[in-house]
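Sequence only, no structure available. Ideas?
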Amino acid sequence: MMRTSTTSLLRAGLRASGRTTTTVPRAAASTHAISNPTLANIEKRWEGMPQTEQAELWMSLRDRMKENWADLTLQEKKAAYWIAFGAHGPRALPPPDEGRKVALYTALGVFASFVVFATMRSFAGPAPSTMNREYQEATNEFLKGQNAEPLTGIGAEGYSGKGMVQSPPKH
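Reply:
I predicted one. Tokens follow.
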């Protein structure tokens, strides 16, 4: 783009027009303190308030906090802090008997799983024929003959582990 006196004048005009400041009128609600009865005992009333009333109160507090914080009343500061960080919603304290319920339901779950396990074991057949010491020793000899796991396992030189043997000898 060529720089001519016309483009320079246009740019200077745009810069000058950008320097003017415009005043934006502030909302009247943010300039007046929120009434003390509205903020009184907010910790106990917050959960019972309708969602729209909660939103209106939070928005008016937010608007007040955009101004100088020295202008906020002590009640407004306390209410804003409690609404932002108080024990409500996801930060609510658990019910007093929650630990007892968790322990009880955990114990019931463990007991039910034991009952299912014991019932299945009582109806189960005998152990498979491969679960005896002789069969597992024969499996060891077969794996040595096949040179299975030649670096660190049963096929390695000087291997001294148990291999596949995990059962006591047959009586």
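The two ends are 101 Å apart (CA to CA).
Hope that gets you unstuck.
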